[in-house]
Amino acid sequence: MMLEPSIDVLQEKIKSKYTLVILSAKRARQLSETKDLQVENPQSAKYVGQALEEVVAGKLYLEENN
Asked: What's the superkingdom here (predicted)?
């Protein structure tokens, strides 16, 4: 079974796997409460998958502090 989006595509957007996990988990909690999805017609029915789809779409990202 192939998981979408792939880790390679996700790491093009966010380099650290740890950061990716934390960001997607926080966003999944938000989605479970608000249902305010930023992508249309998500492939995933689960909140974490939907959060990862937002990362790939460029809707969910991490701002870097300078």
From this structure: Bacteria
The per-residue pLDDT string of the chain (66 residues; one tens digit each, 9 = 90 and over) reads 456 789 999 999 999 999 999 999 999 999 999 999 999 999 999 999 999 999 999 999 888 776
Please report which residue ranges of 1-46 form alpha helices under DSSP H.
Answer: 7-13, 17-34
Sign of CA dihedral 40, 44, 46, 51: negative
d(CA 61, CA 14): 8
Among candidate residues 58, 62, 47, 57, the one with its CA nearest the CA of residue 17: 62
CA dihedral 12, 17, 21, 22 (to 10 degrees): -100
